[in-house]
Structures are given as structure tokens and as C-alpha cells.
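User: I've been trying to design a sequence by hand for this structure and keep getting stuck. Would you show me what you'd pick, starting by listing the structure so we're on the same page?

Assistant: Good idea, let's start from the same input. This is the structure you sent:
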């Protein structure tokens, strides 16, 4: 919570940026998770979206699973606040949604048979 002191928050954000070891990409992505949350708290959702998208791109390039997950949350939240979340779906590293990775038969197919083209046993 910012407690009504956005100037102090911006100053501390600048201090955080200066303290980051740019050669340590895990540290860069970790900081990149906190910055969009600060911007979102300040209702600066376009900045939050931009930083989260950059962090997500770097996280995917470096295959940092934890940073990918955090960045997706920050990006999704910022986009939802901007009204841009329609059509966005969660995917794995191959770009497949959960239903594409592991299709689940409908309840009626389970109850009445014919799962996968053959009668259920």
C-alpha cells in the first residue's frame, strides 16, 4: 500500500533500479515483477503493462519459470484494468492452453459413453 506518498514510491523505485545487477538476469526479472505491481497500485496501468510485458519476454527467453508465472499475473492484472483481457488465455511454454494439452471429455461423454470414438467400458 502506498499510503498517499507516490513521490516516495517513485524515488524508491529508482533506488531499486540502481541497485539491480544488470548482469544477473534472474535479479532483473525479479525486480521486473515488483515494478508493475507498484505501477498498478498507483493506477498507472499502461506503465505496469509495459514493464510486465518486457519482464515476461525476458523471462521466457531465459526460461525462468517462476518469473514467467509472476509476469503473467502482473500483465494479466494490468490488461484487465485497461479492459484488454479478452481473448487472453493461459498457455504453457509451447503455447498450448490446458484444454489443448490434456483434453477432458465432457460430463455427458463420461456418463453416456463414447469417449474418444469408442464406447466407455
Amino acid at each position: 500500500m502506498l499510503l498517499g506518498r507516490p513521490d516516495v514510491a517513485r524515488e524508491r523505485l529508482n533506488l531499486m533500479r540502481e541497485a539491480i545487477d544488470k548482469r544477473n538476469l534472474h535479479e532483473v526479472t525479479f525486480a521486473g515483477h515488483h515494478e508493475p505491481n507498484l505501477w498498478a497500485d498507483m493506477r498507472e496501468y499502461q506503465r505496469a503493462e509495459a514493464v510486465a510485458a518486457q519482464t515476461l519476454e525476458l523471462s521466457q527467453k531465459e526460461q525462468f519459470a517462476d518469473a514467467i508465472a509472476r509476469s503473467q499475473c502482473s500483465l494479466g492484472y494490468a490488461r484487465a484494468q485497461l479492459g484488454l483481457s479478452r481473448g487472453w488465455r493461459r498457455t504453457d511454454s509451447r503455447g498450448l492452453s490446458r484444454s489443448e494439452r490434456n483434453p477432458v471429455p465432457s460430463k455427458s461423454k463420461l456418463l453416456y459413453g463414447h469417449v474418444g470414438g469408442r464406447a466407455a467400458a
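That's my pick for every position. To get oriented when you compare it with your attempt: Residues 78 and 98 are 23 Å apart (CA to CA). Residues 6-88 form a domain with the Serine Threonine Protein Phosphatase 5, Tetratricopeptide repeat fold (CATH 1.25.40).
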